[in-house]
Structure formats: C-alpha cells, structure tokens
Amino acid sequence: MKQILNLKINSEKRYKKFIDDVIENKIVWGLKLKNEDGWAVAISNEYEDTEVMTFWSNKIYAKACLKEEWDNYEICSITLDDFLNHWLTGLNEDELLVGVNWDMNLIGLEVEPLDLLDDILKLKISN
C-alpha cells in the first residue's frame, strides 16, 4: 500500500514539474515513429480499453523511455502554443488520455487532455 501511495505522490510531483517546465521552456517533448506518422501511445494503467499519449517536459526524460517497444521512435519537440492550441483538443476529440513525465517504467499520471490544458493555462496566467 505504501509503495502505491509513493508512486502516486511521485507521479503528482512529475505532473507539477511538467507544467512548470513547459511554461518556462515553451517546449513539450514526445516520441514520434522514425520515418513514419505516429506517436508513442501506451495502454492505460488505470482505465480499461483506454490509450494514453505520452509527453515530457524535458528531452532527457523522453530519452529514458526510448527502449523496448519504443526503441523505433525518436524524440520530437512540440511548441507549447501548438500543444495547447491543437494537440490537447485533438487528443480530447480522439478520447485519449495524456501521460506526463512518465518514468522509464512507463508509470505516471494519466490525465484528461482538457484538464491538463486548464492546469497549464491557469498557471501561465498567474505567472
């Protein structure tokens, strides 16, 4: 039980770090298939029959996940404006969740795209 609680706390810290970092750096990092269309998607750890598209606030975090089933992907940057104005609304329309700053074991917080959009905009406005 304690381990599950620690994973939740760590995931929430990584979520906050994601928001802080992308506002400061104005860049979001994702994993894109090499020489093809398509982005890294994982099966939800929390919800049945749900997919999660993963993003990171730092290129190094994304690089740590370039292994096993994702070793045929490459790290790709997305401007924060594009992420906010196109990606999150598109993911919402496609009924995908967003995984932010997942660790190398592909564990992290899964959030609704519009909730992430709202959280980023709230902090961006207050800064």
Automatic annotation (TrEMBL):
Name of one Pfam family that matches: DUF2750
Superkingdom of origin: Bacteria
Protein name from the UniProt record: DUF2750 domain-containing protein
Organism of origin: Terrisporobacter hibernicus
